[in-house]
């Protein structure tokens, strides 16, 4: 069994009635269906207007005639479509209902009032007529039907205009009907009866709730709500074109949507479905093949935020209580007034800070309610309260998503947007379900443009930022490791709403592009197949031609040529991430230019791996300085290879053996003279010094060489260099012996003294020095600062190696979206 509910928007003309009948017949071929129908669009509104006019002795026939016209048009169109079928029977039934309603309205006009029990009779007529018409269409098509009359079978409480149904009694009534399995069941929505057999309605849009009730009563497997949109969107798609369709949503979240103002579902619809675990789908009558929104216990795909809801036209009655008074006492008095006068409130909140109780309700009733409260407090408790005031133009804006109250980032965006919108914030409410957070605001003007802005910031800016398009240059050991790490983490990142797209990979020879994303697992194959020659200009053109959200150039080369292009890439909108130290150690003029253009273009230049590979040095150093600390002195072992080589020297190995071992495990540059010369350490030291604020050049760094002055190794290749260092082993050995005899060890360090002088030195350290035990490729960086002294802030860990370096680049990548 399947229950299908068609709303007024699906029944606004004869063509739609025929369309709906076709959907019903198709569905009935698969399994038995029960149909719940609303009144044709606008009918209920016109009935309400008619009553309002009759009470005020205005010409209510203006609206009543509109109702008659809609039904006459429907009858004519059905007659035209099926000229051979006799429609006199339904004409009679419809006219009969219209005549009866007109008589009631006349009485309302004479009495100048329309009690709720009469209103409910009048406004529920539209749904009754919809069922009469649909029954006729199905009969013409020779389909067997049976009608459930909710005015008899659906039992509800006494709240005439917003009743709640007693499911078990209604179920019993319906099951006693013993409905044959080959009949299509029809029932009008929105209406029920109370114990006294009086007609009640289930609140505006209540046919959705009727469908949920009928689904439970008939033990249906699914409840389908057919309307004029493709499902539940991130906001009303008629108000925000770019609203996003939600394909899957949990009962809990759908409940929040309906209760917090999304008209697509009546607020009470989900509760019975959830209780009896009946799934629900929202479908579009105008596009029956569209997927729709599936509502069930667990949502398949959990995004942090599902949508925004907004309730407008609220008023608050604010009751200020004298400080010494017992709030609980007054609160229960208020509750009593609400129940005695049957006032429809949305909710009540107690504000501690100004000793007030806020009662929220719909604007239309504000004067009436205000007078009721004033009268009641005057009689009984006038000495307990300071004053009662009424505040109009209240809206309740909410954001919805599973456990959204815990998501600081989303809440921050929400609050920031509302603060910027010039709305007065009355209060912020965390829903106890944790699935929504509401801000209650007052604003005289329409707040839709504020909501549009909020929607954009929550669904687009944020998501845009969480997409990263990578342009990788350099696929040596580090580049390859990075690609592996990205491939391994891709799905985990996706789950956290971070979307990484690899748009281009190049090495010195070749390049490949794909703006839709290169399959990371197959990049080697792709680059082999598509051998386009590498040209930096081509890459720049490609980036400027395509529109990327968040492009980032990752430079995993050691090339000066590539680093000279950073300014151009930043101008094109790219962020830069690199372990390449060349840009940061070029002239100070270039160093500053790079930072200025980043500020101008709002792009980031991230180079955490320039010093200490994956160790979080640059970021910590920047934060330390930004938060007001001052770096006084620095000492560190900054080279993984020299940390290893000196460790081995101190253990008694020769320089030749130590260097060979370091080479074998991949710790050195291809030619180890680069490491042993100390130039690499000098570069790192310069980067730290510039970070601290010293405007130095590379030539200002003093390098104490490990080698004798006359040893010229500049032109030696790897093999030659290795055989030459064999010859200077004895000099080194002597230095080691001397320091060992003093119970010290030799270390290769970078130093920045308190005057900003930088030097690369070989020093002896004793057991108490934090540098003493550092070896095997580890780095150590000791910062003596205003806050950290005499014991320095120490960062220590592996400062070289493909995995740690690639993971440092990865961390920089994630900084782009933090
Ligand atoms: P029906 O007549 O089918 O009951 P309603 O007009 O009551 O239709 O509900 C459907 C309407 O709800 C849509 O046309 C849309 O304008 C409105 N709506 C409000 N919020 C949302 C939302 N978050 N997602 C989808 N529709 C929404
Ligand atoms: N016709 C009613 C209304 O307009 C009920 C419904 O459409 O669900 O509120
Ligand atoms: Mg509706």
Index terms:
7-stranded mixed β-sheet; Rossmann fold; VC0802-like; 818 residues; 29 strands; elongated; 4 domains; 8-stranded mixed β-sheet; binds aspartic acid; binds magnesium ion; alpha/beta; binds adenosine-5'-diphosphate; Carbamate kinase
Can you offer a commentary on this structure?
The protein has 818 residues and is an alpha/beta fold. It folds into four domains: 2-228, 3-Layer(aba) Sandwich (Carbamate kinase); 307-458, VC0802-like (2-Layer Sandwich), CATH 3.30.2130; 466-612, NAD(P)-binding Rossmann-like Domain (Rossmann fold); 617-800, Dihydrodipicolinate Reductase, domain 2 (2-Layer Sandwich). Helices cover 43% and strands 21% of the residues. It is built from 29 helices and 29 strands. An eight-stranded mixed β-sheet has the order 3-4-2-1-7-9-10-8, with helices on both faces.
Q: What structural class do helix, strand and pairing data support?
A: alpha/beta
The CATH H-level superfamily of the largest domain is Acetylglutamate kinase-like
Number of domains: 4
Radius of gyration: 38 Å
CATH topology of the largest domain, what is it called? Carbamate kinase
Helix content: 40-55%
Query: Can you tell me the residue ranges where pLDDT is under 50 for at least 5 consecutive residues?
Result: none
Q: Give the number of DSSP strands.
A: 29
The general outline is elongated
Total helical segments: 29
CATH architecture of the largest domain: 3-Layer(aba) Sandwich
**Which ligands accompany this protein?**
adenosine-5'-diphosphate, aspartic acid, magnesium ion
Gap from first CA to last CA: 49 Å
Strand residues, percent:
15-25%
**Rounded mean pLDDT score:** 92
